[in-house]
Amino acid sequence: MPAIRAQDVTKRYGSVTAVDRIDLTVEEGEVFGFLGHNGAGKSTTINMLLDFARPTKGTIEVFGKDCQADSVAARKHMGVLPEGYAVYDSLTGREHIEFAMESKGVEGEPFDVLDRLDITHAADRPAGGYSKGMAQRLVLGMALVGNPDLLVLDEPTSGLDPNGAKAMREIIREENERGTTVFFSSHVLEQVEAVADRVGIMHHGTLAAVDTIEGLRETAGGGTKLLITVDTPDEAHIETIEATEGVDSAWLDEDGQFVVTCEDDAKLDVLVALDERGVDVVDFSTEEASLEDLFVEYTRGTA
After folding, report:
1. Looking at CB atoms within 10 Å, which of 20, 41, 140, 258 has the fewest?
2. Could you give the CA distance from residue 82 to residue 34 in angstroms, rounded to a whole number?
């Protein structure tokens, strides 16, 4: 049974369509990264998953339970780390976990949860004195109470320093190894690339792509990109590059390099086309496309 299944889901706010007929299946046991620019429909989709918003049409299920018609049963499968979370400054870490246990009707030892998050040393300190990373892990600990089948994490590494982000990645991996399905959104694409089995990319309210990262690479030009340095960079050259057969897209990056996603056989043709236009190619190289490159590709509407 899938952990999440969305079928023909649309959400409109008046004349604005925030989510447009998306179909998505997240399998039990996988780590799924959910990506999108601000306004792409990502947060709206998560809100419908949590029954904070209701679809205009279509259905979303969590382990076979309809998130709207049977929202209480669906939420019993979930632990949630929301974006913009807050802790109770005067309550200790242990008291936060005890509160979560009482709210969920779960018995257990709070220190077992705190130990999974490596914050037992601060269990009896007021959470208002916790660092950003510790507070983030504490709220995640509240989500982990009851060992949910599905973790929904909205921007779990937002605002964390590199050490805090690394610790969060390790926790995600450990919980997944316990059998938990993880569905998380993030704008830090390196974090997603490090842990996700598959990713979904939202663009203008639709799912532009759903695949493994390797699958996205293969679709977007064979998995590598061509980096070209020219004597006088000019965006006008993009038209020449994109007119070459086998090229998917091209753009000028902030360093003044042309970045080209294309079939492997087209790379030499791109260099020849530039030379024929009198463009002086100073240097070129190829490298594997990162998730950031793929995100740019799919949200440019060219893939």
Report:
1. 20
2. 14
- Mark whether 191 and 93 lie in a shared domain: yes
CATH number of the domain residue 247 falls in? 3.30.70.100
Output the CA torsion sign for 198, 214, 8, 10.
positive
- End-to-end Cα separation, the chain, in angstroms: 31
Using DSSP, state whether 183 is helix, strand or coil. Answer: strand
Last residue of a domain, one of 191, 211, 231: 211
CB 38, CB 83: distance < 8 Å: no
11's enclosing H/E stretch is strand 4-13
Alpha helical stretches, state H, 34-151: 42-49, 71-75, 93-104, 110-116, 132-144
- The tokens describing 224, both together, are 């590598």
Assigned token pair, 76: 């019993």
3-state helix, strand, coil in the chain (%, to 5): 35, 30, 35
In a domain, 285, yes or no: yes
Q: Distance between CA 10 and CA 19 in Å, rounded? A: 5
Q: What is the mean pLDDT of the chain?
A: 89
Contact 266, 247 (CB under 8 A): yes
Where a domain ends, among 187, 211, 235? 211
- pLDDT digits over 123-174, tens only? 999 999 998 888 988 999 999 999 999 999 988 887 777 887 888 888 889 9
Nearest to residue 106, comparing CAs of 72, 147, 137, 73? 147
